[in-house]
Amino acid sequence: MSLIAQVGISDGEDSYMVGANACQNAVDKLGEDPDLIIVFASVQYDQEKMLSGVRSVSKETLLVGSSTAGEITTAGPAKRHSVAVMAIKSSDIQFSAAVGENIAADPRVAGQKVAAEVRKLAGDKLKAFIMLPDVLVGNGADTVRGVLDSLGEHFPVVGGASGDDFKFVKTYQYLNDKVYSGAVVGLGLAGSFKMGIGVKHGWIPISTPMKVTKSSGSVLHELNGQPAINIYKNYFGEEEAQQLQKETLAKLAITYPLGIVVTGSEEMLIRDPISVDEHGSITCAAEIPEGSSIQLMIGSYMKAIEVAQIAAENAVAQLEGAAPKAVIIFNCIARNKLFGERAGDEISAIQTAVGTDTPLIGFYTYGEQAPLGGEVRNLDKCNPAFHNETVVICVLGE
Amino acid sequence: MEKYKKLEIIFYLSFPFTALWLFSLLALAFMGHTDNLFWQYALIFSATFAVIFGLQFLVLYKEIMSRLTEANALQKALQSQEYAAKMLVRRDLELSRANEKLRELDAVKSNFISVAAHQLRTPLTSIKWTINMILNGDLGPLTTEQRGFLMKGYESNERMIILVNDMLTSDRAESDKLQYQFAPIQIFDLMDNVLYEMTIQANKKNITIELEGRDANLPRVTIDTEKIRAVLQNLFENAIKYTPAGGKILVKVSADKTSLKVTIQDTGIGIPEEQQKNVFNRFFRAPNAVKTQTDGSGLGLFITKSIIEKHGGKIWFESAQNKGATFYFTVPITH
Prior knowledge:
The complex is a heterodimer. Chain A has ten helices and 27 strands. Chain A has helices at 15-30, 47-58, 107-122, 140-151, 230-236, 238-246, 251-254, 301-317, 333-339, 343-354, and strands spanning 3-10, 36-41, 62-67, 71-73, 76-77, 83-90, 93-100, 126-133, 157-160, 172-175, 178-181, 184-191, 194-200, 204-205, 210-216, 219-223, 226-227, 258-260, 269-271, 273-276, 282-284, 293-298, 324-332, 360-365, 368-371, 384-387, 391-397. In chain A, the strands form four sheets. In chain A, strands 14, 15, 16, 17, 18, 19, 20, 21 and 22 form a nine-stranded antiparallel sheet that branches. The longest helix of chain A is centred in the C-terminal third of the chain and has 17 residues, at 301-317. Chain B has seven helices and seven strands, in the order H-H-H-E-H-E-E-H-E-E-H-H-E-E. In chain B, strand 6 (315-319) and strand 7 form a beta hairpin. In chain B, helix 1 (2-31) packs antiparallel against helix 2 (37-135), helix 3 (144-174) crosses helix 7 (300-310) and helix 4 (187-204) runs parallel beside helix 5. The relative contact order of chain B is 0.07.
């Protein structure tokens, strides 16, 4: 059994060089030919050139990746726009990857396609699926649903939605030599290995529960028969609530997201308010079912740090004594905004559980995918969902 | 509404015993018209249960009323809690906005310092070279008095250059723009070099510097040599500056599995306890330090801490007023 991983990071002016340096850095440290390359990069770089740079080093090695709203490595959150690369070599895990395009046309079909393709390549030994979807062009929850259509309702799925440095214009996904947009890239892990998943957010309700009386997909129209925006008007006051109508994903609103009660998780499922229309309907980052009970949530630095560590401990506990060898983090951009300059503290808290030296890669996402409560050992209770404002920690061990 | 609720409760609770009382009256009425014992028994049973249910009614009524009062109080508490939550959120928003503004102002201030320092550096350098030329006699011979005054001017200008450089370095450190070049090194190669320079300064005040723990087998550390040189210089200069003549500075170097630790202990004026939390802040100088030495920008320890942390190390100190200060820093060992 052997699983080794190393991480490289680079920044600078020349997109090609930055990509090449980051990959060279990771591959040099690995000291062997990798089986898989994971790339998380800022949209500041010309995506094609950056990926060519990475490929100039990784050659034919299987590659998956995504643009981000901030890269994370073993050294913590990147302080500048960077390219982060993880090189993995394993004799026990067989990696396979595919892409589902045109999420804009039908996210569910794209999800079905990518998962079916990976399933075909990996065969019956497929144990876990990592997805990197674009959620700016289609409902992320539908993409997850599509993936589960192909893999089965209770299949371990984790992932993070691509970002674009908080611009919300266009995100990219990478598979081998090609840069996609509006797509979902999927990575299948087959063979005998141990994986732990930690999922937590730490937000707690601050308002009384309200019933979703009218919603369609990710658009929340009415709460308790009133325009949805009233929940923010009540708590923020008229003036601040108006800010939501002017600003996409207003900074203050994402520090007060909405929470939905779901079965199978001790924590509520979080939804980010993205924009508000003239009728007071709120478009969220993922769907909100009609009839569900919703509350305004509040978070704090202390609580968020505490749960990040608990999530990491939960992930490590699922390894059943195996040592963590590689860590992949999908962390919501809103958490980065909540932490501000102290974003590194959250990653340090995670590292106290997974080990400060364990190679770690991750990125700040526009939505996370993971089983509710991080359950992967009892597959009957493994119910993957689309999360917001949550930290998802995936630990591979041996 | 509450009155209606009360009547509703009374109605439901009193229903069984009212029915039994009515039945008792019925039994009593029938008893007068027949010898059948059934009505006598019925009267006894119904009257007994009517009394029991009556008592139960009283107990239950009291209990329900007290619970109802509690529920009302809870409802009110919940309402005021909700109101408080709204106020808390609004206060949080106000503070967040204020914090945002302060950050913007802080950025403007930092930018101002950076621009001002940059602008000052060029004229200061040209003053330095001008005075230097005059002192060298390039513009003709000088009287002793002229030379004395010019020397003072030259020294003051040098202090200004150091201050401006410190301001620029601290600004770069804060905005994470300091460039680092790490390379593995044996710490004593650097330490000996710094100690040589510092001993000259220390000798002027008759301060002795002792080095403990010289061990050529200490593991190597991967550091930016020039940056760690600046750290050592700063810590030694502080120790010399704030230690009275005839004092002593003790330097120790040790290592464990993961890091190398440098300790610099002096017998100086120390740092007052109430000021200790500010020591690594920009522009901070403890009052007893200002009294002892008018010179100093208050930037040295800020820069030092930033450099050490960039190396993945830690810096801390122990001190008490008039009892000296011991500064410690660590840097990770190269494996």
